[in-house]
UniProtKB/TrEMBL annotation:
This is Transferase. Gene3D superfamilies: 3.40.630.30. It comes from Terricaulis silvestris. It comes from the Bacteria.
Amino acid sequence: MSRYAVKTRADSPELRKAAMAIEQAAWGALGFLNFTRAHFLHYQELLEEHADCQLVLVDELTGYPVAVGNCVPLTCDFNNLPPEGWDWIVETAANDRARPRNALGALAISVPGIHRSKGLARRMIDEFQALAVRKSLDGVIAPVRPSAKHQHPFISIDEYVSWTDDKGRLFDPWLRSHAAAGGRIIKPASRSMVVEEPVGFWEMWTGRPFEQSGDYPVDGALVPVSIDLDRGVGRYVEPNVWFAYAA
């Protein structure tokens, strides 16, 4: 990994611009997640406010970033995390600035497809922990998005987390990576990200009409979207899994 250097958005306008491009490339297919209330109101503001916590992994051979890790400082009880996850981290970091910070809340690791399977995402997990040490914080909390859960949208997160592979390890590859990096599962974050938008929004996103109320799978979504035609809205409540890392 010596070929890669860790920098931050605070280092230069060029890195900030490149980091935004990396995130867009990595998450574009899941753009509906940008419409949680917390994301819409606070996310970009927090990235700017805490630019020194927005890590950028640069390939020193090309000079261009290959991975981005976003996190923010906040106050939390490592053993008493709420059912809300990603949205809660963003709202807490944005609205509770007066309290002393004791942790980093990890929000995303973005690696474009061309650079995946090189260990870069795992490197970013390690860098979150190193940043917490440098800032004299107690550790890192992360609402981890299971990478294979979208293939099992009708399975509850509680059941999914209990699955193991033939070696007795966590079934999900991304959960397994966090565990291998020293993360401790706290519990599922059953309401980590909530998107409630008009039915027309979901029809535009999925490219299909919804002619009756019900639960519908959506490409990339971890659980179905609940369409309520009487209210004219579709509600998506994404579950993640809380991990904690001691610094």
